[in-house]
Structure formats: C-alpha cells, structure tokens
Design a protein that fits this description.
By secondary structure, this protein is mainly α. The chain has helices spanning 45-48, 52-80, 83-86, 90-112, 130-162, 169-193, 211-245, 269-316, 322-330, 339-342, 349-360, 362-370, 373-385, 401-406, 423-427, 439-444; strands at 13-14, 29-33, 36-39, 196-198, 204-206, 468-469, 475-476. It has a three-stranded antiparallel sheet with strand order 1-3-2, with no helix packed on it. The protein has a two-stranded antiparallel ribbon with strand order 4-5. Helix 2 (52-80) runs parallel beside helix 12. Its main location: membrane.
C-alpha cells in the first residue's frame, strides 16, 4: 500500500494508501469508483470551517485556564480559610470541583498540544493518543458532575422552600453518593461502549457509537429534571407572593403570641412569603449558577448531538455532500471558495464558538457568584500573620493573664514590689478615689448616729455599709463579695463577674396559661437591713418614748435626726 499511487483528485486522498491505525470510523471517505475510495484529509474542521475556527478554540482554552484558576482559588479558600470568611457548603464545594474537572478537558490539550491526526486521513483516539483520552475523560466526568450537583442543589432548594424540609446529614450523604457515584458510572460506560476521539477542535469528544444511550440521554434526563424542579420552585414562589398580596390577616411576627412556623397549615400567606423571600435572598447565587450551568450543558449536548448526527449522515450517505466535494475538486482544494457549500453540513462557527466559550467560562461564574470579598481579606490576614507568628508583640499589662501569672516582672509597667501579690493587686493600684472608697477607711472610722446605741454615743454606723449587727450596739460593715475583698487589702478591686451563677425562676402565673396559686401568697415583710435603710432603735432606747407610737420615731419624721 505504501507504493500505491493516489488516484483521487486533490485535495482527497486514497484510503488504500493508509493502514487501519487510529480511529478508522472517524474518516470521511466516499467511494468514487469501484475499488477506489477517496477520503477528506484530517482534520475535517480545517476544510469545513474558516481559519478563524482554530483561533476560536484557543481562545476558549485560555478562558478555561482562567476558569480553572478561579476554581482552584475557591477550593483553597474553602479548605484553608475559616468558615466565617468563606461560608463554605458541600454543595458549592462539590459543584466547583466538577467544573474544575470540566475545565481540565480544555486545559490539558492546550498544555500538551497533541496531534489530532493519526495519519493524513485518520483522527487519533484515546487508544492512540494519551492526552486525547485524559482530556475526553475529564470533559465527560466534569459534565456529568456539573449536571448532578446542580440537580442536587435545585432539589435541596425545592425541599427547603416548598416542603420546609431541613436538609441535614442524611441528604448530605445521599448527595455525595449520587453526585459522584452516577458520574463515575457514566464515565465508565461512555469510555467502554463509545470511547473518545478528536471530532472537532483539539479536545476529544465522545464517539457516535452508543453515545445517545450511555451519555446524552441520561445526562439530558437529569438536566430536564433540574429545570423542572427549578421552575416548580419558581411557580411556588409566585403563588406564595400572589397569596400574600390578597392576605389581609394581621401578622403575628412581631407579637408575643406563639407562632408555629414549622407547619405549613398554620402559616398565613404573609408569613410564608416572608420565609420564601428570606430563603431566596440567601440562595439567589446558587439559583443563578444552577441555571447557568444547566443551560450550558443542555446547549452543548444539543449542538454536539446535532453535529455528530450530521457528520454521521454524510458518512452513511455521501450524496448529501456532493456539491461540497465537487466544489473542492473543481477549486483544487481551495476551501475558502466552498465554505458556503459546507454550511448545511456542519454547525455554524458562531454557535460552536459560543458553546465552547460558555463551557469554559463556568469557572468565572462560580467565582463571581460563590466568591466573597471576605475570602480576599482572609488570605490577606493569613499571609500577613504567618511571618510574624513567632514574634511576640508588646501588649498592655492586663491583656495576657497567662504571661502575667508566669512572670509579673517581665513588663516595665509593673514594679518589683508587686511581684508577690496577686493579679488584682498588681494591676490595680492601691489608691483611694472618690469613686471607689476603701473598706479600710470605714473599718477604722466608727461612724455613729446620735440616735440609739449604748454608752450615749450610739453604735450605729453608716447605713450604706451596714448589714449585720456588730458588738457594741453597732452594725458591721458589709462583708466582701469575693476572696479579694478582705480587710487586709485596700483599693479598687476587680469584681467577680464569674463567681455566681444567675438563676431563672419561672413565674407562678402566665397570661397564656393561667393557673390558680397553689399556696396562699406570702406575707410581705420589710427589713431595714435588706434595703440599707436607716435602722430603727429599739423601743426602750427610743428618745421619743412609748408615747409616740411605741416605735421610737414618727412615720413622717423617719429621716429627722
């Protein structure tokens, strides 16, 4: 066969000149005479499209590189940065991973620059070209993953809005099993029963054989379910909004009455509309990315299936391309003069370019819709704190309690004489201020009232400091509330905010469910010591005697000395 002569008119080549290597079914040949089959040179796109087609493919690949960088940035941010900076969610993370795989189907051919053709008339396949197999596998797996994760995202949103189902751990495991399990099964079936090869462009695509059954129909079924669920959710939102416009009932959102918002039957239309509006405000980015990706996948599937069926029809019935092949023969291989004849046989270049760009730009959409400015700030904080992580900065004296307890003399703000004291003694100076009078001042000075007391002088101290009776007819100053407030120390003390625990006592009555009291109401008593009011002297010690009411003091002259 190597010594045979090419009997076909240019630019066609005789099939007999080549062996059976490469993807033989990808040849576009026509039998022009008995025993003579002429084939179009490889690749076919160089003859059916203008020269700008290759440039358009390279542009789509470089856009895919930018999209891949965006996906990598999102994934690293979700993995490394804290959740308050990223608001990460497994639905977003897995969807970004699937789009990353799909972009790699365009990036790998750009980096490897594989040869599309096995020989002059035969395209390469995954058996004869490794980059072809890898890029085709990534493209199919990423497409399957994108469809499944937008389907699961729309299903999650539908359950939350329409059925008030709180998606939890069970839905997460179900999503992981279906979101990655079905794409794995799909890629295995596609590679085993169909395979990939260079169909158009430098990226390998699935072959025609069995492609409808093992890839396109199942993928389009899930894409259709996604669209149906999404529009069903939109329809429910519109219904709730219209019902809220006709609802004139009073809202209980701001009242103190109990509202059972966990039940659809007990919710008013306005309450349902508020809940739906809050969910949409939180999930509108996810809704947008679902619509974008499912539209890209559906558009790519329809265009590629149409292109595949058209080429296959030409291969089976070469008479449909007689005008185009005759033009190429007459023009001695000048394709530019025959592009108008090739138009009905292939998908027009703007449509193909739009599909390739839409697939490669998904990473940019993810960054715009799922990314946050707080991610950039988080990376800035992380990169700025790592070089200074081992350096100790100067802080105020009471900022780090652990270091202060270890060595109180490590700060210049502390003197050596305070090294034996506690933290409160070291931090707070022993100074008497008008705001915080010391306890020692009152422990050494015995304030007495001219009323009452023994020995004529009286034993009554200042009512603001008295709680318990003390020997000598007076009342002792109030005891300290914590272990720092002892009689041996002076100065302002740090309050013990954590020493006592606040307890809640349920009321005996409730207006929502009134109950009769179980016991008679307690007798209301008043003790002067509990309110720090001036204590009344005993009747026998009263200077007013028993004739003035028996209590030693007139009610209207209680504060008179």
């Amino acid at each position: 066969m190597a010594n045979a002569t090419n009997l076909c008119p240019p630019p066609f080549l005789a099939e007999a000149l080549f062996d059976d290597g490469g993807f033989v079914d990808g040849r576009l040949c026509q039998e022009v005479a008995k025993g003579l089959s002429c084939c179009l040179p490889c690749p076919m796109t160089d003859w059916a499209y203008p020269d700008e087609f290759n440039t358009l493919g390279e542009v789509a690949q470089w856009v895919a590189v930018a999209g891949t960088a965006c996906c990598v940035f999102l994934l690293l941010s979700w993995i490394i940065l804290p959740v308050e900076k990223t608001s990460r969610h497994y639905l977003s993370l897995c969807l970004t991973t699937a789009v990353l795989f799909m972009n790699l189907g365009f990036v790998i051919p750009l980096a490897a620059q594989p040869d599309e053709c096995y020989d002059a008339i035969t395209p390469n396949s995954m058996q004869t070209n490794s980059p072809c197999g890898v890029s085709g596998a990534f493209l199919i797996f990423g497409g399957w993953g994108g469809v499944m994760w937008v389907f699961l995202r729309s299903l999650s949103l539908h359950l939350q809005i329409c059925w008030q189902v709180v998606v939890g751990r069970n839905f997460m495991w179900f999503s992981q099993a279906t979101g990655w399990g079905i794409p794995i099964i799909g890629i295995i079936m596609a590679l085993v029963f169909s395979g990939v090869s260079f169909r158009f462009g430098s990226t390998c695509h699935i072959n025609h054989e069995n492609s409808l059954a093992d890839l396109w129909i199942p993928m389009l079924i899930f894409a259709g379910l996604t669209i149906f669920i999404q529009f069903a959710t939109f329809g429910y939102c519109i219904k709730v909004y219209l019902a809220s416009l006709a609802d004139n009932s009073a809202s209980t959102e701001n009242s103190n009455l109990p509202s059972y918002t966990n039940s659809i039957r007990t919710m008013t239309p306005k309450q349902a509309y508020r809940r739906v509006r809050r969910v949409i405000q939180l999930q509108w980015r996810g809704i947008a990315i679902v619509l974008i990706i499912v539209t890209d996948v559906v558009l790519f599937s329809v265009v590629f299936v149409f292109q595949d069926n058209t080429v296959e029809a030409v291969r089976r019935d070469p008479s449909t391309a007689v005008e185009w092949t005759a033009c190429l023969m007459m023009m001695a291989g000048d394709k530019n003069k025959c592009l108008d004849k090739a138009g009905p046989l292939v998908v027009d270049m703007p449509t193909v370019g739009a599909v390739l760009l839409l697939l490669s730009i998904n990473g940019l959409w993810l960054l715009l819709l799922l990314g946050r400015w707080s991610m950039v700030m988080g990376w800035r904080d992380l990169l700025m704190t790592v070089p200074h992580r081992n350096k100790r900065e100067f802080v105020s004296v009471d900022a780090r309690m652990d270091d202060l307890k270890k060595d109180t003399r490590s700060y210049e703000m502390l003197s050596r004489e305070n090294s034996g004291k506690t933290m409160d003694d070291s931090v707070t100076p022993s100074a008497v201020t008008p705001i915080s009078p010391t306890y020692n001042a009152y422990s050494t000075y015995n304030m007495r009232s001219p009323i009452g007391g023994s020995g004529g002088g009286g034993g009554y101290r200042s009512p603001s400091l008295s709680r318990n009776n003390a020997p000598g007819g007076g009342t002792a100053s109030p005891g300290p509330r914590n272990h720092h407030d002892t009689g041996t120390h002076s100065g302002r003390r740090t309050p013990d905010y954590f020493g006592s625990t606040a307890r809640y006592h349920a009321p005996t009555r409730s207006f929502s469910s009134p109950r009769p009291p179980q016991s008679p109401p307690p007798t209301v008593t008043w003790d002067a010591r509990d309110t720090y009011a001036r204590a009344s002297p005993l009747p026998e010690e009263s200077p007013y005697g028993q004739g003035q009411g028996g209590y030693g003091q007139q009610p209207l002259g209680m504060n008179r000395i």
